[in-house]
Amino acid sequence: MSLIVPPEWAPHRAMWLGFPSHADLWEDNLDPAQDEVAALARALAGPGGEKVRLLTGCDEGEIAARRLLGDDAGIEIVPGQFGDIWLRDTGPIFAKREKTDVALGFKFNGWGGKYLLDHDDTVSDQIAKASGVDLAQQDMILEGGALDHDGQGTVLTTRQCLLNPNRNPGWTEIIAEKALAEALGTRKVLWLGEGLANDHTDGHVDNLARFVAPGVAVCPVAWGLGDVNAEAYNLAAANLAGMVDAAGARLRVVRIPSPGWIESQGGGVAPASHMNFIIANGAVIMPTYDGDPQAASLAAQALQTLFPDRTVISLPSDAILTGGGSFHCITQQEPA
């Protein structure tokens, strides 16, 4: 029986969301990050039309989540254990085999050994059990944010991440494509090169380029003279424009303004991206940052033209970004 990963714009039964729970990790950013995630949960459950399953990582996180969101309709607080909130990478990838739901669990090694935290390697099992879906454990290291799916068997990824020897040593494009075909039903892999500067995920594609419809991909265009990712953005756009998907269609590429230079808490540029949006049932929720508001406004307007049947909502993600990611990184959808 054929296996397929539905696209993010397909209907969802639920949206999983990680809630910042550990004061020793988030320090002064814990309360602001919890507030940002609470705002995201409300947007997902409201105009987003989602049943939100909010996973907490410890007792203290559960207490805070219930204080902020315990009375909100459409939000189910699920006590659990995790190292941190990046469920896109530690949780399962949900797929369909004919009409049967499958949760695909992959090995997780802390983005190549950078951040090894207790319980992150158990998140896929926790989410699968809470969803009532059998977990099919896969024998390779893979994070969900490293891939983007068009629902027809085409996958976007980057060589910087997927072929990095800190994940699956010895992988080549041919080996990776075979592994993705066997695990995820992938029919064609579209390879991009480098991701964003200072991205500890080694260039996850969900910060660089995303499918928004069959045959349509978006990627950033640099904003401002200080945008250090301009070359990576332009190369990705040029490569995408020459690519053909699994259905044989040449991709249409839409450029969306990047946030420009966003200063990281420790100095230097942060891996901030408008590409880290979530496609919910009734909305597209795009992260914004403490930069030029015009860039965020134009990015939201561009997404609205691509999703005329959904409301585009912009929400701040500055505190979440201090942990290294944004909205897409902390969510995972359950297909309907």
Structure, described:
It is a single chain. The protein has helices at 23-26, 30-45, 59-69, 87-90, 110-113, 123-131, 159-162, 173-184, 230-241, 293-306, 318-321; strands at residues 3-4, 12-18, 52-56, 75-79, 93-97, 100-107, 135-141, 148-149, 154-158, 188-192, 210-213, 216-221, 252-257, 278-279, 283-288, 311-316, 331-335. The chain has a single domain (3-335), classed as L-arginine/glycine Amidinotransferase, Chain A (5-stranded Propeller), CATH 3.75.10. The chain is built from 11 helices and 17 strands.
Number of domains: 1
Report the radius of gyration as a whole number of Å.
18 Å
Mean pLDDT rating:
97
**What does the main sheet amount to?**
4 strands, mixed
Q: Give, in spatial order, the strands making up the sheet with the most strands.
A: 1-5-6-7
N-to-C series of helices and strands: EEHHEHEHEEHHEEEHHEEEHEEEHEHE
CATH architecture: 5-stranded Propeller
CATH topology: L-arginine/glycine Amidinotransferase, Chain A
Residue fraction in strands: 25-35%
In whole angstroms, the N-to-C terminal distance is 19 Å
User: How many helices does DSSP assign?
Assistant: 11
Structural class: alpha/beta
Flag low-confidence runs: none
User: Which bin fits the share of residues in helices?
Assistant: 25-40%
State the gist of this model.
The protein is an alpha/beta fold and 336 residues long.
Which helices and strands occur, and which strands form pairs?
Layout: E1 3-4, E2 12-18, H1 23-26, H2 30-45, E3 52-56, H3 59-69, E4 75-79, H4 87-90, E5 93-97, E6 100-107, H5 110-113, H6 123-131, E7 135-141, E8 148-149, E9 154-158, H7 159-162, H8 173-184, E10 188-192, E11 210-213, E12 216-221, H9 230-241, E13 252-257, E14 278-279, E15 283-288, H10 293-306, E16 311-316, H11 318-321, E17 331-335
Helix pairs in contact: 2-3
